[in-house]
Each structure stands twice: as C-alpha cells, then as structure tokens.
Amino acid sequence: MPSETPHLVLVDGSGFIFRAFHALPPMSSPDGVPVNAVYGFTNMLTRLLRDHVGTHLAVIFDAGRQTFRNEIYPQYKAHRPEPPEDLRPQFGLIRDATAAFNVPSIELAGWEADDLIASYAKAVVARGGRCTIISSDKDLMQLICPGVELMDPMKQKPIREAEVEAKFGVRPDQVVDVQALMGDSTDNVPGVPGIGAKGAAQLINEYGTLEKVLDAAEGMKASKRRQNLIEFADAARMSRKLVLLADDVPLPQPIEELGCREPVQETLRDWLDTMGFHSTIQRMGLGLAAKPRPTPRPKAAPAEGEAPTVTLSEASYGPYETVTDFETLDRWIAEARTAGVVAVDTETDSLNARQANMVGLSLSVAPGKACYVPFLHEGKRDLLQDGPDDHPTDQQLDRAETLKRLAPLMRDASVLKIFQNAKYDLTVFRKAGLPEITPIDDTMLISYAQSAGEHGQGMDELSQLHLGHTPITYDSVTGTGRKRIPFAEVPLDQATAYAAEDADVTLRLWQVLRPQLRLRQSLALYEEIERPLIEVLTDMEDVGIKVDAVELRRMSADFETRMAVIEKDIHEQVGRSFNVGSPKQLGEILFDEMELPGGKRTKSGSWGTDSSVLEGLAEQGHDLPQKILSWRQLAKLKSTYADALVEQMDQGTQRVHTSFQMAITTTGRLSSNEPNLQNIPIRTEEGALIRKAFVAAPGHVLVSADYSQIELRLLAHVAKIEPLLEAFHLGQDIHARTASEVFGIPIEGMDPLTRRRAKAINFGIIYGISAFGLGRQLQISPGEARSYIDAYFARYPGIRAYMERTKEEAKEHGYVLTPFGRRCYVPGIKDKNGARRSYAERQAINAPLQGGAADIIKRAMVRLARKLPETGLKAQMLLQVHDELLFEVQEQDAQALADFVRQEMGSAAKLDVALEVETGIGPSWADAH
Known about the structure:
Blueprint: E1 7-12, H1 13-23, H2 36-51, E2 56-60, H3 68-72, H4 88-100, E3 105-106, H5 113-126, E4 130-134, E5 148-152, E6 157-159, H6 161-168, H7 175-182, H8 197-207, H9 210-216, H10 224-231, H11 233-243, H12 265-275, H13 278-283, E7 321-322, H14 326-339, E8 341-348, E9 358-366, E10 369-374, H15 399-411, E11 416-419, H16 422-432, E12 440-442, H17 443-451, H18 459-467, H19 474-478, H20 492-519, H21 523-543, E13 545-546, H22 549-574, H23 583-593, H24 611-619, H25 623-648, E14 655-656, E15 659-661, E16 671-673, H26 685-692, E17 700-707, H27 710-719, H28 722-730, H29 734-743, H30 752-766, H31 771-778, H32 782-795, H33 797-813, E18 815-817, E19 823-825, H34 834-871, E20 875-881, E21 884-890, H35 894-906, E22 917-922, H36 925-928
Parallel strand pairs: 1-2, 1-4, 2-3, 4-5, 7-10, 8-11, 11-12
Antiparallel strand pairs: 5-6, 8-9, 9-10, 13-14, 15-16, 17-21, 17-22, 18-19, 20-21
Helix pairs in contact: 1-2, 2-4, 7-8, 7-11, 8-9, 14-15, 16-21, 17-20, 18-20, 21-34, 22-25, 24-25, 27-28, 27-34, 29-30, 29-32, 31-32, 32-33, 33-34, 34-35
Subunit structure: Single-chain monomer with multiple functions.
Region (Disordered): 289-308
Domain 3'-5' exonuclease: 320-518
C-alpha cells in the first residue's frame, strides 16, 4: 500500500499486559521469572505479524501513573492497587519482546497510552489513512469513527459503531458524555451519583450531550436524579475532562518511522529461547528444536476442592511418544506419580461408550509431554520402523496387562486424573475392566460450570478459545464419508500425533481453566454438583432401565393401525392419495389447492408446514391440519420410542441405557440421547402409553419422585413475591390462589376453567409468554389475554420488577445467575433484530428459574447417591427427567424408599418456601408417575 494512504495498527500494550496476566495461568521462564503475561503478549504479536494487513505498526505503553488528569483531579486512579508481585518483572520483559520483534514501542511521560493512541489515530486519518487499534478497552471506544476501529485481541473480532452502541446504547462520539454521567469506579471517576449506564444512555439519547442534560436538569420532574444532576453538575463536567482522550499529543515518533519491519531472526530466536518459548520458535519457523522444560510437581495429594499447584512451562505440541513396551509404560506411570497430575484420554471404535472397545489410550504429564499406548490397531505397516510397506503392526501392548499396571496409578489419591468428558472415558474403562479411577477432574465440566451457553464445551473449541491452538481433527486421520477408516486402522504415527495431542491439550486446558473457577465464583458449583455427578450418572447409565419389548411391539402396531385410519380419512377429505409425511406435498394441498389463509413460503420456496403453522390453522377451525398433527404425533411416537426402544435395548440386560449429556444446555439441565427420554409427552394419553413400557424387574417396583411446581417456588423465592410466598406457606392451591388474586373471585367453589387460565398464566409468565401466545393457549383473543397478563402484573408487581431486573442483568453482563451461582449466558440479548432479542430476553427471565431447578435436582442426586447405600434399601437410581427422579427398588422396600427420597430431595436446598416432592409407586413408570 502506498505510504500516502497508510493503515496504522496500534497495539494497546498497557491494556494487554493486564488482560494477558489475568487470562493465563502462572508460567515461568527457565530462570524462574514469571512470564505468563509476556507469553500472552508474544503470541499476540506473533499472530499480529502473521495476520494483520497494516502498513505501519507500533505498540503503545503507559509511561507512568502521573498524567495531566491527576492535576485536574488528584484522586484519579488513586485507589488502584499496586501491580501483583508476579506481574512487576514482566513490564520490562514485554518491552524487550517488542524490541525483539523489531516493532516500535512508544510511551510519553505525562500522557496515558490511550492519549497517544487517540493522537496517532487522528493523525493517520487526517492523512487519508486508517487505524486499527488492538484493544477491547471501553475507554478507547470513543475513538471509533470512519477510518478507526478496534480489534479485540482475545476474541479476534472487530469492534465498530454497532458494537459500541450495543455496549453503551449511544454512538461512539457520545460515549464520553455517557461515561461522564455514570462515572467509573475503576479509575475513580466520580460521575453523578445514582446514574448508571442505562440511565446515562437514556439522558444522552434524549438531550444529545452532557451540557444539554445539565442545562435541562432544572426543568426535569422532581426526583433524586434531578437533584443529583444539579448538585453534581461540576463533578460531571470534570469527569468528562477525565475520560475524554487527548488527541493532540505531540507524536514521539512520526508515522513514517512506524513502517512494518521484519524481525531480525537471530535476535528474535535468541530472545524466545531465553524465555523458553520454544513452540513459538517452531511456529515461526526459526529453526530451533523444541526443548520443553516441565517443572517437577510435588506428589502431595490435592486438598479438598483444590487442584495441585502447577507452574506451566512453554512447550510445543509434539512430537509425542508411542509406547510399545512395558518398560516405557512403567516409566510414564512413574512420571505421572512424580507430576501428581496426569491427563488421560481413550481412543475407541464407537461414540457409544457402552458399546465402545478401547483401541488405545494416551497420557500427558506436562505441556508438550504426552504418549499414546496402542492396543488394537490393525494397520498393515508399522510406521515406527523402517521396512517394507507390508510389515505388520505388531508392536502394541496387551490391553489387560496395560490396565493392570495402570490400575494402582488410577486409584492413587495423590495423583489427579484429568479427562475431557470424563463420563465417557470412565464408562470405557469400566467396560475394559478398570472400574476405579479417583480422584478426577473434567475440563469439559470445569468450563461448563463457568460458561454455560457462552460457547460449546468440546475440546477443539476450548483449545482454540483458551490455548489459541487448533488440534488435529479426527477426520484428518480417519478420512470422511465412504473413505473413512476405523481408528484401529490409522497408522501408529498418525494415531499417536492425534491421540497424544488430545491428552496434551486436556492437560493445558486444565491448567488454564481450573484457576478461573475461583475467579468466576464457580468453584463450589463444580466441586459440589458437577464433579460428583459424573460418577452418579455413570452408575445410572450402567444400570439402565428395563423395557417391555412385547408391549412396545404391540404399541407400535397399534400406532401404525391408528395412523392408517387417520391417513385414509385425510386422503378421503383431500380427494386423492398423497404422502402425508411429505411437507412439500402437504403445503401444496393446504395453500395451493385448498387456498387456506396464512401460508408462508420457506427459503427453498416450499410452503411452511411445521407444527406452529398447522396449530394455527387448526385453531381457525380447519379440520385437516388437526388430523395431520394427530398423524405426526403418532408417527413420532412410533419411530422415536415404540420402534427405537426395542432396537436400543441391550439384549443381555433387556434394558435401555440412555446417555446423559452434562454440558449441552444453557441452564445446567441434563439432556439425554440414545434414547432421548426428555421429550416423552407428559400429559398426553400416548405419552403415558410410552411410559407404560418402562417397567421394573421381577420382584421390584419403580418409585417416582417429582418436585412440585419448583419453578414457581423459585420465582416466589428469587422475586420475593409475598402473595405467592404466603400461598406456598399455607399449602394453598397456587393456581386457585392466583385466579383469586387476579380475577377477584373466591377460591372456594372456583370453576376449573378459571383455575386452568390462572395456571396457564403462572407457567406462561415464567417463560415470558406473550399475549398472543397465551391467547392461543387458552383459545381467547390476544386482547383478552393481554388483560389477563396486565391484571396479573398489577397484582404481582414484584414479578415484573424481577423480569426487568433480570433482563438488565443479562444485558450488562451477558449472563444471568441462578440462586446457586451458575452463570447462564444469553446470546442475542443485545441483538438488533427485535425477534431474536425478545427471545433472548425470555431466555434470561426463565434461566435463573429453570437453572435453579436444575441445580436443586442435581444437588439432590449427589446427596441421594451418597446416602442411599447407608439405608440398607435394595434400590438404584435409574433416570432423571426434568424435575423427576426414577428409582427401582425391591417391592417390600418401596414405601421406605419413597419416604427417604422425599426427605432428601426436600432438603436439597433452603428456599423461602418449602420444596414439595410428590412420590408414586408402581410396576411401570406410568403407574409410578
């Protein structure tokens, strides 16, 4: 790009230092100097030099704490603590890093780095160029304008006007006025008391500028806000001077001298080697062999709830070792004992853990130090040795002997075993003959406990997010489609690179994510709920639940007969035969031939015929859509349950063994698959039929325990709704009480229809139901439904306040909290699309309640699993579905178990209202429920 149109890239060096220091776990150089911030900064520069498209580049630093702002307000940043001890030596090293990369570094006494950035940005735009600022600092967002943007160095996402408006609610040029009103406790900027981010944005949007807001204050309606605007007007004006960045600072170096320069390879390589950053050397192709230097770890057992102390050393991803003899295996076992921590991963031939055979396993005892132990590879060539292509793969270890040697390590309380998705690997180990592995950590759940809904919890995604590393993919070693080969046929060198890297990445993720549990206040959630639940669910999956195959086949035939009758009726009504299961043909009949109103075409051009469309048509009185819905429900029940359960039944145990998914939902709820037991219709006759097929073993019965109205109880608890609290304390019918409160009629003699409407409102409010949705549910007009909702909020104003408060919390933080501290992230809460934003707001309102219910039943499961063996009852926990637990017990112990479970579930959490648990006993799930 010609020099007269420069693209200047400015790195906010000072801002990045602190972000990198707090984002990365402790690391040390070969000389023992802390270097985690230096490492993060180095990786950022490496990525920047590789990916940026600028013509000019500089890193901007703060020269010191004292600036012109301290003359304006001596208390500015005065309360900021001194930098942590481990960070202080890294300031100079980061400047050394900048020099080693041959990048100009700029600082100027008396001015903050942000002022220099503002001045350089203004200067380059004045020349017709543009500026990219590598930072996500909110204070720099005021600079965004045509030609100037920010780039988040962690997320690698641009920050432009839309992102600023989403954060502050105003344009970038108005950010300074918003900050002046709201102040900034971090920098000790006073602002105006009582005015937060939302209030400040509203004022600026209404009046335009800070001065216009202050001028208008006298004429505002009498309030505390008006009083504060008048009383603290000078503080607001001073705050504006403090937050406004100076864009006229004399430039220490002219832009012409900031042209991008290649680093001197020998200088850079020597510096990286001194720091111990050998994987960076490899990534940059600087030609120095990797020399990982793992720091020995103490063998002492980790304290309860704590991980062993680990100092990270920088290391490359590979090469890794293939273990082909027991002497080498014993050496790795000894190293794991010395380290006190080992990451473990299994390679199998199936995603279904109960059906999977262990093909091999991998171990990692330090970053970059991992191995793969093959058992059942069937490749035609041993790539560990030179020789002819047809040399057989015979250098593998016997699995039984390997597991026998590993067993003491796996039981050793002084060595922490780390997994990614531990439940899967524990099941695989059990099947292979190694049932006892303790203590364990699970990086998937460590992440999930602090970031549910923020991103996926798969290893590859976590690696890219937290390590900046893209692991080898399964497809790259096994192929895809028809060319895919089983992992057992993958050549050993490729299998080792892939499998050992998984263990290596798992260990590194643990080192990064484990310390964040405490910082994000998620440690108790992980230690008391998620981690102990791994073993509980593993046991439940292992036991499974018995199904009546004869009943299922009879049910399938019945569904098929009923479907045929409905299908014949449909064809007669249409006047010809067609494929009832074809959305395309159905759409043409409904909207082209019958010309029913309300049809909408999909992006493919076909008519939409999903359930919402058909339900809408049925509510208008059209008969055919209702018949289609009935046919579809039977078809789904037949294929998903009546037929599939027979196929999924273990022929040996005559049971189905569902797999519980622990890290899928945003709210913390469990889900399940193979089979999915969460979606069986609860209140329909057909759903009851499906549950009839889940039965107890001979001499046993099933016991169901279900939390009663738990989300309404949580709503009363978190929102402090006195009428609801009183109703629950008095044991009243909550729906009748609501109907009485809202509609002004006595509880005694209330007709069922009125109670049903109150029930629909109670549960609808939890899910943020609209007037249209409630009207549709109750088959009344949206206007009448709106009057019900308005009456409800008029009687329970605290619920509306809770809803608004929760939405604001979600918008401010990006997540909401359950009563037990679980973060439930809410993507889309600031979406410009109204429909997506409204959906996210409904999610935010419901998440603390649904998530709180999930936390409570998980706590109950952990308690029950721990205490049930002490009772002497011959019982097993089988299933968890929403707010219900299902047990199998010997018939004579059924009532004792029901009483015990009711007590334990009821005391799983302390709320302002009692937790009520309804129990039932029967030979089938339907009978017990």
